[in-house]
Design a protein that fits this description.
There is one protein chain. The protein is 65% helix and 10% strand. It has a five-stranded mixed sheet with strand order 1-2-3-5-4. It is α+β, with helices and mostly antiparallel strands.
Length: 412
């Protein structure tokens, strides 16, 4: 369970790291282009000016050349590191070239080109260090006002807040993405460290548990070997002691392993969220389950029921949504804790194609091993299991007593 959670966390962290980094593949570049394309709306005014502005052929050709160079540099900055990573000096030079082209084209062709200052602010926000971006963004805005004073003051003031705020918003978005990436990485690291710590604890406990017993068995075996020729009765006593010590060690190991393997509902809920998310299934899961009055055996039974149900949802259901609920109900037999797992998949079942007989939606066919085992486990804890098809999906309901840990004769 721990290894599965760690693997899922590492996979998610690996995918999310790419959100804050330049694209590395053509697929990532295409997805990023979908997000970048709406920003190209500010190029419509320069394009319209070149098409319908009545410029002479040499002037129009120069304008198209300058606009193509501007767009190429801007996209190169947005998609930087696609082949060979750009050095900081190259990035600074490219942003400076954008600024020069923006000023020159705006002064040459007029106010229709002032929207290019927006792209310069975007590049300052996403490429420069924060301290440098905080200075270059207002400087670029000031350049907009100075150029606008010459070619179109009203248009410049209309773009003033856009140019200023879009640059600072890009710095904020970049910081948010980097923080999210760092948190995902830290979460994956913490999960790995927790798994390693659990392994070390288990190894330490087993060493402490078996070290004394195995040492005693070794010592008595040596004694029995030395006594066997001359004192067979005393050797037999040593062998009997060895048998007793080994049996007790076996009991201790079984108890320790049972304690380690005892399922916890909170852990299973966390694993359920990861499993459903990885399978692309929308999950509605309680965050902090109320287990007041639910004994360890009953909680373990509910956890196993949740694990089996979610496994079936992921593997067999083809569902798009799964809802997990944990409720407390008052029945004639006393309070019970009710775990419900419902999905909207048309093929959801036990993996056998049928629901277990004797429960909701059941038929005459034999139930699957998973649901049979769950029924037995819940009955041992004094609970019940219902599983069957509902309209548009499949539903599993497990109930256990919520007032005492001991099994009861009459189920909930």
């Amino acid at each position: 369970m721990t290894d599965g959670l760690r693997a899922d966390e590492e996979a998610r962290a690996h995918r999310l790291v790419r959100i804050g980094e330049p694209p590395r593949t053509r697929g990532e570049a295409l997805r990023k282009l979908v997000w970048v394309a709406p920003w190209l709306v500010f190029l419509t005014s320069p394009v319209a000016d070149l098409l319908h502005g009545g410029h002479a052929t040499p002037v129009g050709a120069a304008g198209w050349t300058g606009l193509a160079a501007f767009t190429g540099i801007y996209l190169a900055l947005v998609f930087r590191n696609m082949s060979r990573p750009l050095s900081p000096a190259a990035v600074y030079a490219m942003v400076a070239a954008l600024e020069v082209l923006t000023v020159a084209l705006s002064l040459t062709f007029g106010e229709a080109w002032l929207g290019l200052f927006v792209y310069v602010s975007v590049c300052c926000g996403i490429t420069f260090p924060l301290r440098l971006a905080y200075w270059t963004i207002p400087l670029n805005t000031a350049a907009l006002l100075l150029v606008g004073w010459r070619v179109g003051e009203e248009t410049a003031w209309g773009l003033f807040l856009v140019v200023l705020l879009v640059g600072y918003s890009m710095t904020g978005v970049r910081q948010l993405i980097h923080t999210t990436v760092a948190l995902r990485r830290a979460r994956a690291t913490v999960a790995q460290l927790a798994a390693n710590e659990e392994r070390l604890r288990m190894a330490r406990d087993l060493h402490d548990l078996l070290g004394h017993s195995l040492s005693l068995i070794t010592l008595k075996s040596e004694l029995a070997g030395r006594m066997l020729p001359d004192h067979p009765d005393r050797a037999a006593q040593q062998v009997a002691d060895i048998e007793q010590v080994s049996r007790q060690a076996l009991v201790d190991v079984r108890e320790a392993v049972t304690g380690y393997r005892r399922a916890r509902l909170a852990t299973e809920l966390a694993g359920t969220q990861v499993a459903l998310t990885a399978a692309g299934i929308a999950a509605d899961i309680p965050v902090e389950p109320d287990l007041t009055g639910v004994g360890e055996e009953s909680e373990s039974a509910l956890a196993w029921a949740l694990r089996e149900a979610v496994t079936n949802v992921v593997r067999h259901s083809g569902a798009r949504r799964c809802t997990v609920e944990l409720l407390r109900r008052q029945t004639l037999a006393g309070p019970v804790a009710e775990l419900s797992v419902e999905d909207d998949g048309s093929a959801a079942d036990d993996g056998t194609g049928v629901a277990p007989p004797g429960v909701a939606g059941g038929g005459a066919e034999e139930p699957g091993n998973g649901l049979t085992g769950l029924t037995e486990r819940l009955e041992k804890a004094g609970g019940t299991l219902e599983a069957g098809r509902v309209r548009g999906g499949f539903r599993l309901v497990a109930r256990v007593p919520a007032d005492r840990p001991a099994p009861v004769d009459s189920g909930a």
